[in-house]
Design brief:
The strands form 2 sheets. A 5-stranded parallel sheet has the order 7-6-5-8-9, covered by helices on one side. Strands 2-1-3-4 form a 4-stranded parallel sheet, with helices on both faces. It has 2 domains: about 170 residues, Aspartate/ornithine carbamoyltransferase (Rossmann fold), CATH 3.40.50; about 160 residues, Rossmann fold (3-Layer(aba) Sandwich). With about 375 residues, the chain is of the alpha/beta class. About 35% of the residues lie in helices and about 10% in strands. The structure holds aspartic acid (2 copies).
């Protein structure tokens, strides 16, 4: 499978429905008749971050607050999706994202089917469409799709009636990563202000938040989804990378570009480091990993220049010593492990919002029914 970054492929990959008008989430919207705030459109699929407007993102984060509480319990399981079947269809190597989604589905008592390309009929030449239609015929409610080709999850959504979540497609998007990153930023900010994350914390902390997205932007689906989410929420993103790693499509992203990490560091609230995607040919865009690290790696010396309260983030897996120094990865301001932990709760929320149906309780009701404090 190719990871063709061609604009046409990416254009085909964007969700068929135009993104809803952007705007601030507004103060707690009132609940509509179908169990979600009136301003939040129902989610059919999650293919791109552009599928959600600010109110939609805020809603996912609120539902995550309720479900995140469940994750911390001694028996972290609720019956919210009992009787539903979720398929994880991973046609590209992945362990972390797949485990995160499968854990999320199981914590809500859904049945999970795992399809991995390495051990499946895809190896025998079956087309993606045949594979997907065969699985759909078994009666499944949601497909979680990772694929090396940009746009594959959107294609799957056209072929089946089930809900589809994009778990990373080529160089295109990784929307649940962006949602878990937003959740982590909001959680850290709320804690820094002495507030416990609960249903009363909104997304105001993103207004004017300055975020540097550093590194291999060219090959990064994480960067694209994150930038869309940050802009939707009113944050200011700056892409920091060598000239060779600027993606050809950057004009449409609405971000500043800078090639000098040292100039940007003292100014930002978040440094978001991307992994050098050596398996996607990044090596040919750089003289060497060592040289990259000298210009763009977050060393301890550089981290010391960050503002107090600034956050360091990375989607994992980290190349320690390349984009992030060992000691920086383990600093208190490094939120890497929180990102992983929040990934499960955010994916629970996404699956819940897709699958629980129109009569499902909204975030507050859900929180109360689960006994979440402050709901
Ligand atoms: N890209 C890595 C993997 O596939 C990590 C991740 O997806 O979270 O395992
Ligand atoms: N885990 C992320 C992804 O799958 C980031 C990475 O692999 O660098 O895109």
């Amino acid at each position: 499978m190719s990871s063709d970054p061609a604009a046409a492929v990416v254009a085909a990959a964007t969700s068929p429905a135009p993104p809803a008008a952007r705007g601030p989430a507004g103060p707690s919207p009132t609940s509509g008749p179908v169990g979600r705030p009136e301003t939040v459109a129902p989610m059919r699929h999650l293919l791109s971050m552009a599928d959600l407007d600010a109110a939609g993102i805020a809603h996912v984060l609120r539902v995550t607050d309720s479900l995140g509480e469940v994750v911390r319990r001694s028996i972290p399981r609720v019956p919210a999706l009992r009787g539903r079947t979720v398929v994880s269809l991973f046609a590209e190597e992945s362990t972390r994202t797949r485990l995160s989604f499968e854990t999320a589905a199981r914590r809500m008592s859904a049945d999970v089917l795992t399809f991995s390309a390495a051990t499946s009929s895809a190896k025998k030449g079956e087309s993606l469409r045949d594979t997907v239609e065969t699985i759909a015929a078994m009666g499944v409610d949601a497909f979680v799709v990772r694929h090396g080709a940009a746009g594959a999850p959107t294609q799957v959504a056209r072929w089946v009636d089930a809900h589809v979540v994009n778990a990373g497609d080529g160089w295109h998007e990784h929307p649940t990563q962006a949602l878990l990153d937003c959740y982590t930023i909001r959680q850290f900010r709320a804690e820094a202000e002495g507030r416990t994350v609960g249903t009363e914390v909104g997304t105001e902390c993103f207004e004017g938040l300055r975020v540097a997205v550093v590194g291999d932007v060219r090959h990064s689906r994480v960067a694209r989804s994150l930038v869309i989410a940050l802009r939707t929420l009113g944050a200011r993103a700056t892409v920091v990378c060598p000239g060779t790693l600027v993606p050809p499509s950057l004009e449409g992203w609405g971000v500043d570009v800078c090639h000098d990490l040292d100039a940007v560091l003292p100014e930002v609230d978040v440094v978001y480091l991307l992994r050098l995607q050596l398996e996607r040919g990044t090596g040919s865009y750089l003289p060497s990993a060592r040289e990259y690290s000298a210009g763009f790696g977050l060393t301890a010396r550089r981290a010391a220049r960050l503002a107090p309260g600034a956050m360091v983030m990375h989607p994992g897996p980290m190349n320690r010593g390349v984009e992030i120094a060992d000691e920086v990865a383990d600093m208190a301001r490094s939120l890497v492990l929180r990102q992983v932990a929040n990934g499960v709760a955010v994916r629970m929320a996404v699956l819940y919002l897709l699958l629980a149906g129109p009569d499902a309780p909204d975030a507050e009701e859900l929180g109360r029914s689960l006994g979440v404090v402050g709901a």
